[in-house]
Automatic annotation (TrEMBL):
<keyword id="KW-0808">Transferase</keyword>
<feature type="domain" description="L,D-TPase catalytic">
    <location>
        <begin position="92"/>
        <end position="228"/>
    </location>
</feature>
<dbReference type="GO" id="GO:0016757">
    <property type="term" value="F:glycosyltransferase activity"/>
</dbReference>
<dbReference type="InterPro" id="IPR006311">
    <property type="entry name" value="TAT_signal"/>
</dbReference>
<protein>
    <recommendedName>
        <fullName>L,D-TPase catalytic domain-containing protein</fullName>
    </recommendedName>
</protein>
<comment type="similarity">
    <text>Belongs to the YkuD family.</text>
</comment>
<dbReference type="GO" id="GO:0018104">
    <property type="term" value="P:peptidoglycan-protein cross-linking"/>
</dbReference>
<keyword id="KW-0133">Cell shape</keyword>
<dbReference type="GO" id="GO:0071555">
    <property type="term" value="P:cell wall organization"/>
</dbReference>
<dbReference type="InterPro" id="IPR038063">
    <property type="entry name" value="Transpep_catalytic_dom"/>
</dbReference>
<keyword id="KW-0812">Transmembrane</keyword>
<keyword id="KW-0472">Membrane</keyword>
<dbReference type="InterPro" id="IPR050979">
    <property type="entry name" value="LD-transpeptidase"/>
</dbReference>
<keyword id="KW-0328">Glycosyltransferase</keyword>
<dbReference type="GO" id="GO:0071972">
    <property type="term" value="F:peptidoglycan L,D-transpeptidase activity"/>
</dbReference>
<dbReference type="Pfam" id="PF03734">
    <property type="entry name" value="YkuD"/>
</dbReference>
<keyword id="KW-1133">Transmembrane helix</keyword>
Length: 230
């Protein structure tokens, strides 16, 4: 395991050692270092294959058992890791960086947990402050009317697609709101790891399922979210 020191962009500068319309269409002192490592449970680039396979291993006890990620399909720079990240935001705040395909969770003391993400075209158009207005485990997916107009085959899901591994939202979803209104912007789990670091969705932010489970468990409703300009 490695804890990386980085500038405010989240890039490392030092280290301390101790699937259907489904997903593709719909759609980041040594004592301090060790403390942050334990807090984030990170899996940084440069780790062994065994470590990656552990962090991104199967989750058999879920409602729909989640398979292991084929880590060879992910660029290691998008693995979950703890980085130096200068921010005045309180611990727990989520910062979305669509340009660089990362999501940060502020941990405090100048550190953040960084997750690699996929982001779609609309994700490069929307920016600003929001908050988590709703959370859902194994959510129902309902395609927006704009998507149905572009892709008529999605109309069969107009009433909602049942939860499951083939559901575009996957195992977890965090819905972004402004002033009590859903922005149509969502953080969700994808089981197509090779899309991480690319722009493939209809605008929402996709995390590797195991990363989304980690972020979801740490994120209560009303958590502040900042979406940076692309």
């Amino acid at each position: 395991m490695v804890v990386d020191d980085a500038n405010h962009s989240g890039e490392p500068v030092a280290a301390i050692r101790p699937e259907l319309i489904n997903r593709r269409a719909f759609l980041g002192g040594a004592a301090i270092g060790l403390g942050v490592l334990a807090l984030a449970g990170c899996a940084p680039a440069g780790m062994s294959v065994a470590e990656a396979e552990r962090v991104y291993g199967p989750r058999p006890n879920e409602r729909f058992p989640i398979p292991a990620v084929k880590v060879s399909k992910i660029n290691p720079k998008y693995f979950r890791r703890t980085v130096r990240y200068d921010s005045k935001e309180v611990a727990g705040t989520i910062i979305v960086d669509p340009r660089n395909h990362y999501v940060y969770r502020i941990e405090g003391d100048g550190y953040a947990t960084r997750y690699g993400v996929s982001v779609g075209r609309a994700g490069f158009l929307w920016s600003g402050d929001a908050y988590i207005g709703r959370k859902a485990e194994w959510p129902i997916w309902t395609p927006p009317k704009e998507m149905i107009e572009r892709q008529p085959e999605a109309a069969k899901y107009a009433g909602g697609m049942k939860p499951g591994l083939d559901n575009p939202l996957g195992a977890r979803a965090l819905y972004l709101y402004q002033n009590g209104v859903y922005t149509l912007y969502t953080l969700y789990s994808t089981s197509v790891p090779e899309t991480i670091g690319t722009g493939v969705s209809s605008g929402c932010i996709g995390l590797i399922t195991q990363d989304m489970l980690d972020l979801y468990d740490k994120t209560p409703v009303n958590t502040k979210v900042i979406v940076l300009k692309a």
